[in-house]
Give the backbone structure.
Amino acid sequence: MISQNIQEAFNKQINAELYSSYLYLSMAACFESLNLPGFANWMKVQAREENEHAMKLFEHIVQRGGEVELESIDKPKVKWESAVEAIEDALNHEKKVTGMINDLVDLAAKENDHAAGVLLQWFVSEQVEEEANADDLLQKLKMVGTSGAPLLMLDQQVGKRE
Ligand SMILES: [Fe+2]
Ligand SMILES: [Fe+2]
């Protein structure tokens, strides 16, 4: 059985993961309008992953006899002036989520919930990867700048993400 506190915190995190998915989907739409289909693809893959994160928490609550309660998802930002601005936002968002995951780890320890703790360790490692991926993309983008040919080459490269 899952405690009320963990259940509530996990339900909140499901909402945060679904919001992340929504945010990245919004960035994908923005990249489509900026004529950067590769970046749009990168964001669509990212959005799908966030959905999977939400489902990991969903299944954990269900498996332990708890109740999933979905809340409404906030409207994400819709327009970014440049690719750099969007990826900067993505990186900052991931840093914020890392903070949320760390708080959940603290809560699970406080509640002596080892099962939640094990699941959350996966999220801790995942956040290291998420921040690194966004930072890597940001550094590459800053290197190529806004110029035509190099930016199009980078767009082709990130378009290969599956
Ligand atoms: Fe996530
Ligand atoms: Fe993420």
User: Anything to note?
Assistant: The CA atoms of residues 38 and 159 lie 3 Å apart.
